[in-house]
């Protein structure tokens, strides 16, 4: 039986940016059977399918053509992992922060750096979401996916997922065809200590006098940092970090540091350097900038916000203005993190 399909459905409250947007057709899938029925319906009508999780990484246009399907597969199973720690099997529609909280309350560390990251588990896998030195890929063992074209269900290893900085195989043309159903996570491996070498996190732990080896203490510090720096989407619409931190060669980084000694950099392997996009945007004069119904956060230049009543065109105009200004001043091209549904 095909789940209920709504027409001209308002998506405004289903994305964290809260942009004015309407889906031509919208439905929710709570099972693989629901997904099969909805994709079959879309095929008959010759229309595209767009998958929606927690809406934390989507900039939806005023009208979204085709069928929008919110992936609502939930549930979490737990068992001991044969190589140590706990193995979790988590539905793609589960909120990532709920999983973080549950595991830490059980005493299983590993995901504390991801505390308060918005969105679902499925969306976090696609994006390889990360914060304060921790990425989803580091706690992931496998991903179960469904291919609507072949009806094949299979498990993919982390190697097959081809994770990178805020990317994965699921952001490629071939990978975009796959629907994530469940994810296998590993937490609570005793030898692992929380990552606390991220500068702001280390300072927060030192300030509070918390034990940096205690996952719950690290989680609390991460939540405190995010609450101070990042606007709450429930109060003001945003998609979190809007731009990726650009990666450049060591030669380019040295040139920039000569002209801008305060530039924030993070050395990487392979003679590459990651630059702090927020610093670049702030130095380009955009921190706190307002352009009609959209703007840049006054607390963090990496966050674009919806001041009220904005749509995707407003966001794209500000995005393009920032990208052009940073490119002109620093010779560095910024790449947005969110997906744009035009």
Describe the structure.
By secondary structure, the chain is an alpha+beta fold. It folds into 3 domains: 6-71, Uridine Diphospho-n-acetylenolpyruvylglucosamine Reductase, domain 2, CATH 3.30.43.10; 76-187, 2-Layer Sandwich (Uridine Diphospho-n-acetylenolpyruvylglucosamine Reductase, domain 3), CATH 3.30.465; 237-341, UDP-N-acetylenolpyruvoylglucosamine reductase, C-terminal domain (Uridine Diphospho-n-acetylenolpyruvylglucosamine Reductase, domain 1, Alpha-Beta Complex), CATH 3.90.78. It has helices spanning 32-45, 96-105, 121-127, 158-161, 199-208, 215-229, 250-259, 277-283, 312-330, and strands at residues 6-10, 22-29, 49-52, 58-60, 63-71, 76-80, 86-91, 130-131, 134-135, 140-147, 152-157, 179-187, 237-241, 247-249, 265-268, 272-275, 290-291, 294-296, 303-306, 339-341. β8 (130-131) and β9 form a beta hairpin. α5 (199-208) crosses α6. The longest helix is centred in the last third of the chain and has 19 residues, at 312-330. The radius of gyration is 20 Å and the shape is globular. The model has no long low-confidence stretch (mean pLDDT 96). Its EC number is 1.3.1.98. Belongs to the MurB family. It catalyses: UDP-N-acetyl-alpha-D-muramate + NADP(+) = UDP-N-acetyl-3-O-(1-carboxyvinyl)-alpha-D-glucosamine + NADPH + H(+). Keywords: Cell cycle, Cell division, Cell shape, Cell wall biogenesis/degradation, Cytoplasm, FAD, Flavoprotein, NADP, Oxidoreductase, Peptidoglycan synthesis.
């Amino acid at each position: 039986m095909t789940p209920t399909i709504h027409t001209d459905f308002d998506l405004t409250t289903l994305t964290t940016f809260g942009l004015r947007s309407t889906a031509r057709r919208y439905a929710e899938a709570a099972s693989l059977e629901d997904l099969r029925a909805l994709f079959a319906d879309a095929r008959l009508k010759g229309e595209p399918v767009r998958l929606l999780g927690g809406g934390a990484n989507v900039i939806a246009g005023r009208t979204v053509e085709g069928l929008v399907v919110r992936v609502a597969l939930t549930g979490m199973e737990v068992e001991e992992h044969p190589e140590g720690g706990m193995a979790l099997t988590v539905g793609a529609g589960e909120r990532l922060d709920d999983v973080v909280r549950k595991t830490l309350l059980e005493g299983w560390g590993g995901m504390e750096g991801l505390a308060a990251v918005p969105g679902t588990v499925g969306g976090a896998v696609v994006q390889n979401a990360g914060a304060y030195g921790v990425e989803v890929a580091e706690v992931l063992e496998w991903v179960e996916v469904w291919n609507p074209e072949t009806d094949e269900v299979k498990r993919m290893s982390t190697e097959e997922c081809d994770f990178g900085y805020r990317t994965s195989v699921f952001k490629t043309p071939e990978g975009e065809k796959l629907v994530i159903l469940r994810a296998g996570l590993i937490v609570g491996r005793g030898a692992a200590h929380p990552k606390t070498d991220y500068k702001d996190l280390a300072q927060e732990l030192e300030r509070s006098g918390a034990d940096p080896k205690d996952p719950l203490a690290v989680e609390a510090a991460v939540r405190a940092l995010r609450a101070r720096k990042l606007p709450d989407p429930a109060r003001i619409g945003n998609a979190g970090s809007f731009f990726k931190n650009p990666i450049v060669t060591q030669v380019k980084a040295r040139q920039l540091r000569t002209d801008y000694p305060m530039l924030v950099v993070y050395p990487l392997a392979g003679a590459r350097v990651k630059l702090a996009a927020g610093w670049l945007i702030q130095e380009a004069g955009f921190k706190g900038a307002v352009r009609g119904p959209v703007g840049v956060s006054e607390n963090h230049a990496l966050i674009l916000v919806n001041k009220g009543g904005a749509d995707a065109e407003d966001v794209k105009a500000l995005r393009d203005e920032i990208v052009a200004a940073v490119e002109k001043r620093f010779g560095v091209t910024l790449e947005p993190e969110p997906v744009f549904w035009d």
